[in-house]
Amino acid sequence: MRTFIAIEIPENIKNKLYNSFNKEREKTEGVRWVEEKNLHITLKFIGEIEESKVSLISRVLEEVRDKFKTFKVYLKESGAFPDLRFPRVLWVGIGPEEKVRELFDFVEKKLEKTGIPREKRNFHPHITVARVKKRGKINFKKKSFDDDFKIKKIVLFKSELNPEGPVYTPLKEVELKDG
């Protein structure tokens, strides 16, 4: 099964992010926009795993719950991978990066002990809002946000890819203690 670990974001933030790209969604072709309900901060894309690994990964999430308390983050400006001139992924950044990176590093270290390889690319905390499917003249403008929220929940998701878009099913959720 295809899996990833994510930070859940509050519904009001999902709604604001989704609606802030309404104009772009209407006028941009060749782009697959992430559904509002699927917006999240990916901590670790794991990929295909055997069902037996779910319990090992669940234990890692329990260790996260025991080590980390809730903490506040804020939305930064939007951007794109690799860049805004030739975007493949449109995202909104998350700060402070250090706090989220600390969580990422902990998860990476613990998952590596279960046989899941470390990410080769640098970690950049963000919320993916769209994926560019068709190269061409796509003109995204940077947007700035001034919203903040508390990180409270970490989730292991199963991801099923369908023609209509992915379906994310929570396999394990942990609530961080109030910080």
List keywords for this structure.
single chain, 179 residues, alpha+beta, Cyclic Phosphodiesterase, Chain: A, 5-stranded antiparallel β-sheet, 4-stranded antiparallel β-sheet, 9 strands, 26% helix, globular
Structure description:
With 179 residues, the protein is α+β, with helices and mostly antiparallel strands. Helix content is 26%, strand content 35%. It has one domain: Cyclic Phosphodiesterase, Chain: A. It contains four helices and nine strands, in the order βααββαββαββββ. It is globular. The mean pLDDT is 94.
Summarize the entry for a quick read:
The protein contains four helices and nine strands; from the N terminus they run E-H-H-E-E-H-E-E-H-E-E-E-E. The chain has about 180 residues and is an alpha+beta fold. The model has no long low-confidence stretch (mean pLDDT about 95).
Number of helices: 4
Task: Supply the CATH superfamily name.
Answer: Cyclic phosphodiesterase
Give the tally of β-strands. Answer: 9
Indicate how many domains the architecture comprises. Answer: 1
- What is the string of SSEs from the N terminus onward? EHHEEHEEHEEEE
The CATH topology comes to: Cyclic Phosphodiesterase, Chain: A
Radius of gyration: 16 Å
Task: Give the topology.
Blueprint: E1 2-7, H1 11-20, H2 22-27, E2 31-33, E3 41-48, H3 53-67, E4 71-81, E5 89-95, H4 97-112, E6 126-132, E7 148-151, E8 153-160, E9 167-175
Antiparallel strand pairs: 1-3, 1-8, 2-6, 4-5, 4-7, 5-6, 8-9
Helix pairs in contact: 3-4
